From TrEMBL:
Originating gene: hisS
SUPFAM superfamilies, per database record: Class II aaRS ABD-related, Class II aaRS and biotin synthetases
Enzyme class: ligase
Enzyme Commission (EC) number: 6.1.1.21
Highest taxon above the source species: Bacteria
Protein known as: Histidine--tRNA ligase
Length: 411
């Protein structure tokens, strides 16, 4: 019988990886909390329509990557490929539009069927935040600022670069769309099959094409800046002035469009050169029409998401591990006493590991491997005297401590 393996594109979070993973989540949640964001959690699967209506029918996520299945009731269900659409659906389902502004932070697994590589898995994890309601550019500045603070607190900010662009308002987008259709139509026969489809449905997505043949034509395509309305220019100016005011550096990236169809106005990415081809560590933008297009009220939104796996690979510090006390009982009577003592110590707030087997030398070697602070040795002699031998594993010093005084001695 073949040995069971994880499904391709999934991975086990063993303790060391999980500590880094958890450090990213906890740091992000605490930082977001200082901005007033509260954690929410949406289901990991939704009706497929939640994503096809929002992410975009021509996006790679919908056409190639989404895990879709029919449940026993005949409903079409999709594992969530990203977080924003589910949060937007929750706003509608729960009638939250009466409580604006909404500040939501989330974390959890996402699923996309794509070629696994460094920093990209089929089951991956994200943190993200959504600020729903405000229409001012200051809201965009706030979510970017919070994202930058999270990266800074993770020890990553100095190793990434913020790239910034605007996708304009509806009038700007329509004008730019017409210009792109005219430009790319001249090369229709030379475009990839995906981009031929995008030319009909969403030509802006050609700018995001990874096909090398498409890239040849993309480099000379019209830029959005040429088609921005005055209102769109003013909005983007408010964003850049806000970032300048609080000292967050950025690079203007006129080809940055993002891969999801619901973005308007601001779009941005924090990118790095440390992860090879998967250089984006945090990305997002404004999506003012999303909730309306899902059948909800016409309310604005702006947010971002970041891959936890990529952030954990770049983490600028080693997560702290609680250093335990190790109990070393020698003999059956000592094991009974150790059970009671371990329970008391844990109730008092100590992290306690009990060495169950092996001679004294092996158990102390394990204690050192666990980076324990102290080994509490209980043998027949110690029990007869009503004491424990407490060895400080940093200094090597050892002393006998009365069992009745052990809790006070350990603090």
């Amino acid at each position: 019988m073949a040995q069971l393996q994880p499904v391709r594109g999934t991975h086990d979070l063993l303790p060391e990886d999980e500590r880094r993973h958890r450090a990213v989540i906890d740091t992000a949640r605490q930082t977001a909390g200082r901005y007033g964001f509260e954690r929410v959690e949406t289901p990991i699967f939704e009706f497929t329509e939640v994503f096809t209506r929002t992410v975009g029918e021509t996006s790679d996520i919908v056409t190639k990557e989404m895990y879709v299945f029919e449940d026993r009731g005949g409903e079409s269900i999709a594992l969530r490929p990203e977080g924003t659409a589910g949060v937007a659906r929750a706003v509608i389902s729960n009638g939250l539009a009466q409580n604006l502004p909404l500040k939501m932070f989330y974390n959890g697994p996402m699923f996309r069927y794509e070629r696994p590589q460094k920093g990209r898995q089929r089951q991956f994890h994200q943190i993200g935040m959504e600020l729903i309601g405000p229409t001012t550019p200051l809201a965009d500045v706030e979510v970017i600022s919070c994202g930058a603070d999270i990266l800074d607190n993770l020890g990553i900010l100095s190793r990434v670069q913020l790239e910034l662009n605007t996708l304009g308002d509806i009038a700007s987008r329509n004008a730019y769309r017409a210009a792109l259709v005219e430009y790319f139509s001249a090369f229709r026969d030379k475009l990839s099959e995906d981009s031929k489809l995008r030319l009909e449905k969403n030509p802006l997505r050609i700018l995001d094409s990874k096909d090398e043949g498409d890239r040849v034509f993309v480099k000379d395509a019209p830029t959005f800046e040429q088609y921005l309305s005055n209102e769109a220019k003013d909005f983007f100016g408010g964003v850049t002035r806000g970032l300048d005011t609080i000292g967050i550096p950025y690079t203007l990236a006129p080809r940055l469009v993002r891969g999801l169809d619901y973005y308007t106005h601001t779009c941005f990415e924090f990118v790095t050169t440390e992860l090879g081809a998967q250089g984006t560590v945090m990305a997002g933008g404004r999506y003012d029409g999303l909730i309306r297009d899902m059948g909800g009220p016409d309310i604005a939104g702006v947010g971002w998401a970041a891959g936890i796996e990529r952030l954990s690979m770049m983490l600028g510090f080693e997560p702290e591990v609680a250093r335990p006390l190790v109990l070393v009982p020698l003999g059956e009577a000592a094991e009974t006493e150790a059970l009671k003592l371990a329970h008391q110590l844990r109730k008092a707030g100590h992290t306690v590991d009990v060495g169950f087997s092996g001679n004294l030398k092996k158990r102390l070697m394990r204690a050192n491997k666990l980076k324990a602070t102290k080994a509490i040795i209980l043998g027949e002699d110690e029990l007869a005297k009503g004491v424990a031998a407490v060895r400080d594993l940093d200094s090597g010093e050892q002393a006998e401590v009365a069992l009745t005084d052990l809790l006070r001695h350990l603090g």
